[in-house]
Every structure is written in structure tokens, then in C-alpha cells.
Amino acid sequence: MVDPHHIAGRVSTPLENTPARPWDANAPIPAPLQLHSPTVLPQWVDYNGHMSESCFLLVFGDSSDAFFRFIGIDETYRDQGGMSLYTVETHIHNIKEASEGDPLKLTLQVLDVDAKRVHIFHSMFHAGTGELLATGEQMLLHVDMNAGRAAPMPDWLHAHVQAIHTAHSTLPRPSQAGAAIGIRRKTV
Fold first, then answer.
1. pLDDT reported for residue 47
2. Is residue 21 part of a domain?
3. In terms of Cα–Cα distance, which of 70, 77, 82 is closest to 163?
4. Most buried pick, 6, 68, 146, 178, via CB within 10 A?
């Protein structure tokens, strides 16, 4: 089976070189977004017989890439403007195992946005049973790649993300969002 994540020996996304969708300001915005539904590939399964932890991140990254195309970012945006969204922080919660051939459904919720940052939350479900398998929380930063630093989003892009944030503001905040990692100790 061909791995959709490797092009000429480098990691890629299944959506690479797929143009961004035209933005329709009058279209309803799903809450949450459902933009990515892969199947667990054989090469994602580790020696324990379930999806490897690194592949959860890979799938969440593909979901982010689908989101970028939904809001208007693709290779043309990057190549012509020298701008992109970079992930600066990720938190993954593995809740249940996924096995080879399992159908997945991912949702994406925009938790917050400002001029330079977008805070998103992915939920990965088994598409057949509806069980929550994992969550992935990401902080994205809009970057001027030529300057090598954060830069404000153009007005049109910020408006797209803000519209999604507004549509998602009625959704409950996921319980895993903002969770810190650490060993919880009982106080005596």
C-alpha cells in the first residue's frame, strides 16, 4: 500500500498540493468542523497491534491541514506571500486504542483566536462506534517565513478564523482543553 504521507522520501500530508476551498461568507459553519476521516493504515500500527502514538499526531496534523484549506491557506498562500501557520504547542490525550482498518472521524473546534494565534482542538472518534479515541490540542502561530517571526494574519484570513470561532463559541469547552501534564498527588 502506498503511504500518502511520504512523497519522494519526505513526510507530507494527503492534502498536499490541494487548493484551498473558496470561502463562502454566507455558508453556515459547522460546529464543530468535520474535515478529515481517514482509515488506520497498516504502517500506523506498532508492535503492540494498535495505532502508534506518533501516528495520532500525524492524523491530527492532517486534520489541521484540512482546516488550513478550509480557511484559505494552501501552498499558493505560502509560496506567494511567504506566510504560513506553524504549530508551536501540541497536547495529545490518548483515550482508547485504534487498530488497523478502523475508520476514523475527526472534528475540529476553534477555541480562541487573536491577530497572530489560533487555538484549536481536535477530537478523534471511531467512525463506526462513535467512541472518543484521542484528543489533540494545538496552538498555531501565523508566521512570516522570510522574517522568521510571528506576524499578524491578513484581515481576510483573520475574518475567516474569527467567523469559525464565533460559530464554535456555543460548543462546550472540551474537558481536556488546557490540561497540564503532571503526577497528581493526594494531599494528606
1. 92
2. no
3. 70
4. 68
